[in-house]
Design brief:
single chain; 49% helix; four-stranded antiparallel β-sheet; disordered N terminus; 23 helices; alpha+beta
Length: 881
């Protein structure tokens, strides 16, 4: 361990510690535990000593809570006797038993009533600089250790896996090991030795004994810190930081002019997928309605702009501008790497959705879904296979990949090559290839594709007979004996001409699909209609100026959103025009007509949402929806055999093409599917952006070295180092842009439900943004046990959420704490029953519960009431509001 010492300027000042301590005391974070743990003193004990120990405990907890890397991390003991905790330089402390680092904790003194320095023992997993296990409410849960196949005996002794005290201090039970007193759930001990440590406490084992008097040999006074009281304080910090982030995000008027909160991810979502109209859930990794291709184009644009700024700054020797450019590149690259990883994840999920396992000659292999179903499957077989299609559809909806458009584009490029080959070298083989390519469009790409979008359907309808003609003309041309006579030249040219017509028809389909896309997800307008209906109902119930003004604000916001719709779809444009007309007729509201006109406007907004939902610009997704309905018909016996065969053949074809496409996206984004994390492609966008971040980061990175040069402008050595480092960053940046552009060149996507990473606005949300080094939030898995509820998607002046029957809160954040004895967090699907508590679980009156069924699944209408109380063995929800 580095023996440098933690100085006064480390992470917390004395003022910050005092402020936090006051906050914790006012919040009652661990008053319950203090009353339990301090109450073991005898009447012979000096009350002043107990105050000293309590203050030391408060400061130790406060310092741990404010740790910027691992909230809850305990200081390493002082081993030199100078009151200062060593500065960590590796995973472990040099030792986990020593003196209390009272100077680091800003304590005035740390001696007992004998004048002896206080001793201190810390639990290994709660100290040190280790990344594993993550430090959170569940750290060192004995059930988790068992699940990870880590034996408790391997953690005892040297590892200090458990601390034991002869006086029960904690709470909870441990059915996995009845030999351990479940009440000894201790993470640290502060010991007043009153001279020398008692012999039983100086033997270097994990068992400690509190003294019986101040005169006999057993006179150590021990103040324990339990895991639950430490984490109760940490959870309060976590909840407060999340709440500050959410409020800052929604009130960031420049970045977020609509002043919306992110949609929460339903508790049942294993991918932290933010879902429209959900009001309660987890911190979302993604938000619905984004377009991965547009997001990627914006990332490339941002990187290119920063690249130009850096190049100009270095050319002009404007070091301050170069420094700002490097900082911007660092932030953009962090977001870019997260975006590339997200594209890989959704591509891998899509790939897996197109496959199923079968056994051939005792070997398990993957094949396309439905590919072994046969030409005439019975109803039972179809019913058994149909759920696979639902998984395929869901994955496609989540990532928004337009596989139809990608396949159309790829095959049209192949068609162009076939045309060129036939024109330059007419032969049986070249026209045969042209015939096959035209037939591919006619039989498969067109034949296996259906969409309700009239413009796209019309473009495919026009192209289909052209493909037939191109196929037939190529068949005639390929059978010619030579291509030198005038009749044969004419026939060959006719085949090439018709193939060119097919190429142009495909280009029309491509452009029509692009033009049909809508820039806003249907869920936003569905929500706007519901919200306007809520405010209209409020006005109808109490028709005064306040409720009328509130309704007007909502309708004005809806008008702005509707006007922002951009598309070439005639159906959506017609619905947009109708909604704009209805909203304009309603505004400004007239008390005589507001109810009737608002109802019309709400109906028109809802119709716009329906038009967008049914727009059909993702042709493959629409095809799979129709295929699913046909399978349902087949199960009921109302589908003819020919249509069923065409449907199954289409599913197999598109599953095969999708798997190839998804694997290509995954490889260019990060790595091929189903490979270990260490198998990242060396030229992928993810790897390149990681290399860019590495070039920027650390003491030898371009940011630090340029700053060193700025501080010493006359130092030629520093100037050379800075120039070399910046040049390395420029090279890495160019490579990142190149790999990202390669990925974007094949990425075709429309609106996605889970492919656009959540954009967090405001300084308070820095811990939720992607970074070179994972933040305390990401590194310690706080997302698994932290939840929030919003009163409304748009930040209201006052909310409608209450805590203990009081308040009008916009947001309530809940840190759920460690699983209690009746909770099973391995249960699937996840429900609030296994995370949140009832204020009185013995009686469990519904009005006193945080774990209500209305907060499970999508939680579109959750209970607006929350309950908080002092943490105990039966209740440990920590609230911020």
């Amino acid at each position: 361990m580095n023996r440098r010492r933690i100085r006064e300027s480390r992470k917390q000042s004395g003022i910050a510690l005092i402020a936090l301590l006051v906050l914790l005391i006012l919040a009652g974070s661990y008053a319950f535990y203090r009353s339990v743990n301090v109450g073991f003193g005898g009447k012979d004990r000096d009350a002043a000593l107990m105050v000293t120990l309590a203050r030391a405990k408060d400061s130790l907890i406060a310092y741990a809570v404010m740790d910027s890397k691992r909230p809850g991390r305990l200081l390493c003991p002082d081993l030199l006797g100078d009151g200062i905790s060593p500065l960590l330089s590796r995973d472990d402390c040099d030792a986990y038993a020593g003196w209390l680092p009272w100077k680091t904790l800003d304590l005035k003194e740390a001696t007992d009533d004998y004048g002896t320095r206080l001793r201190y023992v810390a639990l290994r997993w709660f100290g040190g600089d280790r990344a594993m296990p993550p430090l959170n409410s569940e750290t060192l849960s004995l059930s988790q250790l068992a699940a990870a196949s880590i034996s408790k005996s391997s953690l005892d002794g040297i590892s200090l896996g458990t601390l034991y005290l002869d006086i029960p201090v904690g709470n909870g039970t441990d059915a996995t090991d009845p030999t351990i007193d479940p009440k000894n759930d201790i993470v640290a001990l502060i010991i007043a030795p009153r001279g020398e440590l008692d012999a039983r406490n100086a033997d270097s084992d994990n068992y400690f004994f509190s003294g019986k008097s101040s005169s006999d040999p057993d006179n150590d006074v021990i103040m324990p810190v339990t895991r639950q009281e430490l984490m109760a304080a940490v959870e309060k910090r976590v909840a407060n930081e999340v709440k500050a982030c959410l409020e800052g995000h929604a009130s960031s008027s420049l970045e977020n002019p609509a002043q919306t909160y992110p949609w929460p991810a339903p508790l049942s979502s294993s991918t932290f997928k933010g879902t429209a109209q959900s009001l309660f859930g987890m911190i979302p990794a993604t938000q619905p309605g984004g377009n991965p291709d547009i997001d990627l184009k914006q990332t490339i644009s941002n990187l290119t702009s920063a690249q130009n700024t850096l190049t100009t700054a270095m050319a002009n020797t404007d070091l301050a501008a170069a420094q700002q450019a490097l900082a911007a590149i660092n932030e953009i690259a962090g977001m870019a790497r997260a975006q590339f990883d997200r594209l890989f994840l959704v591509a891998e999920t899509l790939y897996k959705s197109t496959k199923k396992e079968i056994t051939v000659d005792d070997n398990t292999i993957l094949i396309s879904i439905f590919s072994d179903i046969g030409d005439a499957p019975d109803n039972v077989t179809i019913a058994a296979e149909r759920p696979r299609l639902a998984i395929f559809k869901s994955a496609l909806s989540d990532n928004g990949f337009d596989v139809f458009l990608a396949e159309l584009s790829t095959q049209n490029q192949n068609l162009a090559q076939a045309i060129n080959a036939a024109a330059s070298s007419p032969s049986y083989d070249s026209f045969d290839a042209l015939q096959s390519q035209a037939n591919l469009f006619r039989r498969k790409i067109y034949g296996y594709s259906i969409t309700p979008n009239p413009e796209i359907t019309q473009a495919i309808t026009v192209a289909s007979p052209i493909a037939t003609d191109a196929r037939d003309n190529a068949a005639i041309a390929k059978n010619l004996s030579d291509y030198t006579t005038e009749p044969n030249i004419t026939k060959a040219n006719a085949a090439i001409s018709r193939a060119n017509d097919l190429f142009n028809a495909n280009t029309v389909i491509y452009n029509t699909v692009l033009a049909s896309r809508v820039n806003v997800d249907a869920s936003e307008f569905r929500y706007l209609a519901l919200r306007a209906g809520t405010f209209l109902a409020a006005y109808s119930a109490a028709p005064d100026m306040n409720s009328l003004d509130a309704l007007a604000v909502v309708l004005n916001g809806a008008l702005q959103s509707v006007n922002a719709v951009s598309t070439g779809s005639t159906t959506v444009l017609a619905a947009k025009a109708a909604a704009v007309g209805a909203l304009n007729a309603t505004l400004p509201p007239n008390t005589n007509t507001v109810v009737s006109l608002s109802n019309v406007a709400i109906t028109r907004i809802d119709a716009l949402a329906t038009a967008i939902e049914n727009n059909g610009d993702n042709v493959l997704l629409e095809t799979l929806k129709i295929a699913d309905s046909r399978l349902a018909q087949a199960i009921s016996g109302s589908l003819d055999a020919a249509t069923l065969k065409n449907t199954i053949d289409g599913i197999v074809y598109w599953a095969t093409q999708t798997a190839t496409y998804a694997n290509d996206i995954a490889r260019k984004a990060r790595k091929r599917v189903n490979l270990p994390a260490t198998s990242d492609s060396g030229t992928s966008a993810y790897t390149r952006s990681g290399q860019l971040l590495d070039s920027l980061d650390g003491s030898r990175g371009s940011i630090a070295l340029l700053n060193d040069y700025i501080q010493a402008p006359g130092d030629t050595a520093k100037a050379a180092e800075a120039q070399t480092a910046v040049s390395a960053t420029q090279t890495a940046l160019a490579r990142t842009i190149g790999s990202a552009s390669t990925l974007e060149a094949i990425l075709e996507s429309g609106t996605a439900q889970a492919a656009s990473i959540t954009q967090w606005y405001g300084n308070a949300c820095a811990f939720l943004r992607p970074a070179v080094t994972p933040s305390w939030w990401a590194a310690n898995n706080w997302a698994n046990t932290t939840f929030y509820q919003i009163s409304d998607r748009v930040r209201p002046a006052t909310g409608k959420l209450t805590v203990n029957g009081n308040g009008e809160y916009r947001v309530v954040v809940v840190a759920s704490g460690r699983a209690l004895e009746d909770q099973n967090r391995a249960a699937v699907p996840r429900t609030t029953r296994n995370y949140l508590e009832c204020a009185d679980p013995d009686q469990s009156p519904p009005q006193m519960c945080n774990r209500t069924p209305s907060r499970d699944e999508s939680a579109t209408a959750p209970d607006t009431r929350f309950w908080g109380t002092t943490p105990s063995s039966k209740f440990n929800d920590r609230l911020a509001y």
